[in-house]
């Protein structure tokens, strides 16, 4: 009834801190308690654990109620400290408000040792040690297991190594060996603590899409169970179970092969990025492989073709426009050449007359570059049609072709009358019969 009263009112009304004393002590060791409140306060002294378990009376009227509290020369000591001793000590004021006067924090003060999976541990134990105990956690409610006694070597537990000549040896370490190893003297006084942590090995691979990935198994252990954890999806996937490929819902189906010495994955993809966990048959984590698959930068041929065609068309348009403009400028700057008039020659022979050579008056023939005709004639202004010009005008009083004496330019052809008779006149009269 008293314990219930203390618990209820302690949680409901809280605590008055005042001038709070504090101290830190090592697990398994002893600590001297301050004279106030342990020596001077006659009222009941309560302990309130940090883990929120029920409070308890540890002293009343200056007398210890906990067998681990001892007195020597008017001083009090708390011995064989455990994690349960982490908390505050205080008194009740006015029967309702609890005042904390002393806060105690428990540290393991253990020697920390880190080893890789399947490595070996060699440790020199204190010469005064007579017992070695093991517990997974210091605040475990289970009693520590005695692994070794100096006076009874036959009862030693060899599952966690052997001790010979004060040397402790453990081979093929796994996470099952993680925990606290406590060495005590013959009177059970704590001598030292070793906190052993076995960690998995880690590797990293970087690949490009389409490449081959080969992951070698750990050097010892197996058969292996492999779990794949994608990089961006929190959904573990089973790849191997006891060395055999799990084909159901396997993203690597058709690309994965379990070999004697490792795991082979062909044509890796960007979605294959993530971690591969290798565990032994007991579930111990042996290896974590972090894989990063980069996307291949493949050229986009359609974009390249489009760009090339666009650039080519642009350059062709610029060149065509430049040439057309240059040609047009030359035509505008040069005088127009006039063609000679057509000349008809009459000869006695029936063949076709040869055209006479054409001469230019004070104008040299154009020798500039010939520009191709524009693709779109509408771009250029309309040119006026060609107008023939007679560059040799007739002179007054001068006959270009004077008649020759005795020669008719147009001789009369036999049997042909070039002057037909007028109408009404019978050219061929009726001959008398």
Task: Name a few traits of the molecule.
Immunoglobulin-like; 433 residues; six-stranded mixed sheet; signal; mainly beta; 3 helices
Could you name the ranges where pLDDT drops below 50 across 5 or more consecutive residues? 1-18, 328-374, 376-381, 429-433
In helices, the fraction of residues equals 10-25%
The CATH topology of the domain at 2-107: Immunoglobulin-like
Number of strand elements: 27
Task: Walk me through the structure.
With 433 residues, the protein is mainly β. Among the domains are: 2-107, Immunoglobulins (Immunoglobulin-like); 111-199, Sandwich (Immunoglobulin-like), CATH 2.60.40; 201-294, Immunoglobulins (Immunoglobulin-like), CATH 2.60.40. It contains three helices and 27 strands. The strands form six sheets. Strands 1, 2, 4, 5, 6, 9 and 10 form a seven-stranded mixed β-sheet that branches. A hairpin with a 2-residue loop joins β15 and β16 (167-170). The longest helix has 33 residues, at 301-333. The model is unreliable at 1-18, 328-374, 376-381 and 429-433 (pLDDT under 50).
Which helices and strands, and how do they pair?
Elements: H1 2-13, E1 15-16, E2 21-26, E3 31-33, H2 35-38, E4 45-49, E5 56-60, E6 63-64, E7 69-72, E8 75-78, E9 87-93, E10 97-107, E11 111-116, E12 121-124, E13 131-135, E14 145-149, E15 162-164, E16 167-170, E17 179-184, E18 190-199, E19 201-208, E20 213-216, E21 225-230, E22 237-241, E23 244-245, E24 256-258, E25 262-265, E26 274-279, E27 285-294, H3 301-333
Parallel strand pairs: 1-10, 2-10, 11-18, 19-27
Antiparallel strand pairs: 3-8, 4-5, 4-9, 5-6, 7-8, 9-10, 12-16, 13-14, 13-17, 15-16, 17-18, 20-25, 21-22, 21-26, 22-23, 24-25, 26-27
Keywords: Signal
Signal peptide: 1-18
């Amino acid at each position: 009834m008293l314990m219930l009263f203390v618990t209820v009112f302690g949680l409901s009304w809280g605590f008055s801190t005042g001038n709070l004393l504090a101290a830190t002590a090592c697990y398994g060791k002893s600590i001297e308690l301050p004279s106030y409140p342990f020596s001077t306060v006659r009222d009941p002294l309560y302990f309130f654990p940090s883990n929120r378990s029920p409070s308890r009376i540890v002293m009343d009227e200056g007398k210890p109620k906990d067998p681990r509290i001892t007195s020597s020369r008017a001083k009090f000591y708390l011995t064989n400290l455990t994690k349960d001793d982490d908390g505050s000590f205080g008194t009740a004021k006015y029967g309702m408000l609890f005042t904390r006067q002393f806060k105690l924090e428990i540290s393991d003060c253990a020697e920390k040792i880190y080893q890789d999976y399947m490595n070996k541990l060699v440790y020199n134990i204190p010469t005064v040690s007579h017992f070695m105990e093991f517990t997974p956690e210091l605040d475990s409610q289970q009693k520590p297991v005695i692994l070794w006694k100096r006076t009874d070597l036959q009862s030693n537990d060899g599952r966690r190594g052997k001790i010979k000549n004060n040397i402790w040896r453990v081979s093929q370490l796994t996470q099952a060996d993680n925990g606290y190893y406590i060495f005590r003297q013959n009177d059970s006084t704590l001598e030292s603590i070793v906190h052993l942590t076995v960690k998995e090995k880690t590797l990293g691979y970087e690949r490009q899409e389409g490449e081959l990935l080969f992951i070698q198994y750990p050097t010892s252990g197996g058969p292996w169970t492999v779990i794949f954890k994608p990089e961006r999806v929190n959904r573990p996937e089973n790849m191997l179970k006891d060395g055999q490929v799990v084909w159901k819902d396997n993203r690597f189906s058709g690309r994965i092969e379990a070999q004697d010495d490792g795991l082979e994955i062909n044509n890796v993809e960007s979605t294959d990025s993530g971690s591969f966990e290798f565990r032994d048959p007991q579930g111990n984590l042996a290896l974590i492989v972090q894989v990063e698959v980069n996307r291949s930068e493949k050229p986009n041929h359609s974009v390249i073709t489009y760009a090339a065609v666009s650039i080519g068309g642009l350059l062709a348009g610029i060149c065509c426009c430049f040439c057309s403009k240059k040609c047009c400028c030359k035509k505008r700057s040069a005088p127009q050449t006039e063609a000679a008039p057509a000349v008809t020659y009459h000869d006695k022979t029936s063949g076709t007359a040869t055209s006479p050579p054409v001469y230019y008056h004070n104008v040299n023939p154009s020798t500039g570059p010939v520009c191709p005709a524009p693709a779109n004639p509408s771009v250029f202004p309309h040119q006026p049609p060609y107008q023939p010009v007679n560059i040799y005008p007739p002179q007054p009083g001068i006959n270009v072709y004077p008649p020759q004496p005795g020669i008719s330019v147009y001789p009369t052809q036999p049997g042909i009358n070039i002057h037909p008779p007028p109408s009404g006149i019978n050219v061929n009269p009726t001959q008398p019969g």
